[in-house]
Specification:
By secondary structure, this protein is α/β, with parallel strands linked by helices. It has seven helices and five strands, in the order H-E-E-E-H-H-E-H-H-E-H-H.
Length: 204
């Protein structure tokens, strides 16, 4: 039953305090806390390199379909902007990050290639760091809760959202996975021209 009585927030607060009443707490999202990184950051937001396979950046994105979410992990070579490794799965497991290391595709020399990520659970897990180090790839991470430290990957996924992911409603995981394959391997690597590369494609 509504009495149509208008009162200020201060009045309500005062009356509830006097009556010993308390509102139910909402679901507050915790603020990102500064945490000392578990591995070093030798990149320090400088993604410029003079040759291929000197610095790789990696990240995971997710997108919804009518069947459920699809997770995609990508490894990007910062020199050529080329996608050198990628992996797709229905869940964000450690295997998703481990499978996309591009080690088999590029055969990086031990100590010659750095791989940089954010502080996602998949990249901080034992399986990822062990595989990277066993392949001679020192894993690096930026600061916690700072997307600028992995800005090249954030920019990559922002373009993918505009150019592919948000352009339609995806029915099945297979449909979206197929579209991601075509986007990464055909459009991005072979057709998309980048101003940072003198309007060449990553493969060129």
């Amino acid at each position: 039953m509504s009495l149509n009585i208008h009162v200020s927030h201060g009045t309500v607060e005062l009356l509830t305090q006097r009556a010993g009443l308390h509102g139910l707490p909402g679901n507050r999202r915790p603020r990102a806390k500064h945490v000392t990184p578990s591995v070093s950051d030798l990149v320090e937001r400088n993604f410029t390199r003079q040759a291929r396979d000197q610095l790789w950046v990696t990240d995971i994105t997710k997108h919804a379909t009518l069947e459920g979410k699809v997770y995609c992990a990508v490894v990007l070579d910062t020199f050529s902007r080329r996608v050198v490794g990628w992996s797709i799965d229905a869940s964000p497991t450690a295997a998703l990050a481990t499978n996309d290391l591009a080690i088999g595709n590029r055969n990086p020399q031990p100590g010659g290639t750095l791989i940089h990520s954010d502080h996602g659970v998949q990249f901080g897990c034992w399986a990822f760091t062990q595989r990277a180090r066993a392949s001679g790839l020192p894993p690096l991470m930026g600061s916690v809760g700072d997307c600028v430290d992995n800005a090249m990957m954030e920019s990559f996924w922002a373009r993918a959202q505009v150019e592919l992911l948000n352009r339609r409603r995806w029915r099945t995981r297979l449909e979206l996975s197929t579209a991601l394959f075509e986007y990464l391997e055909i459009f991005h690597n072979r057709q998309r021209r980048h101003s940072a590369l003198g309007m060449l494609s990553p493969v060129e």
